[in-house]
Amino acid sequence: MAIRPEAPAPALWNAGRYGYARQLASPNFGPRPPGTVIDLIVVHSISLPPGVYGGQEVQQLFTNTLDWNAHPYFKSIEGMQVSSHFYIRRGGELWQFVSCDERAWHAGKSCYRGRDNCNDDSIGIELEGLEGELFEPAQYEALASLSAAIAANYPIAHIAGHEHIAPGRKSDPGPGFDWPLMQRALAWNRAQFPDAALFQPDTKEPGAR
Question: For position 199, what pLDDT does the model report?
Fold first, then answer.
């Protein structure tokens, strides 16, 4: 019996697109400013309608195909044109809408590490979820793997939530997101995360070595 050769693995990156993501192009993007150093990952959460999972509404929002009349909530965001580079569903399925080389429209008015307009030099990752609620293990696994792959291709120095780059205006991914888990999964320096104060010093039981 003839043995078929295994299909080659996809190229990890091609023009800013990640080989292990399902691709769906969004029209909502633009060029980054000349000389931009892409060194920030921004973590978001999203669900449409809020708290409802499993549909195609997020993909439709990012591709300007959402039916504004399909749900009363959609009227409150009617006409919005936004995008994120990536979207991770509850089961860990990964979608990409914008090349990481391009500027997606995910951050809005923002400031972090002394720089305004975080869309210019960041990569946005949306998690299917709702701020204040918990996220799934498969999402953390996918997020950690994706973040590591991004950091291998771009000079990532920071990872933060939307709430950290737009405090008072945005609250996602919220208190249900486990930042210490992400720090352990990535094994990145704590200073790369939103605020070193979010992480309690390591403690040991009395008498432990």
Answer: 56
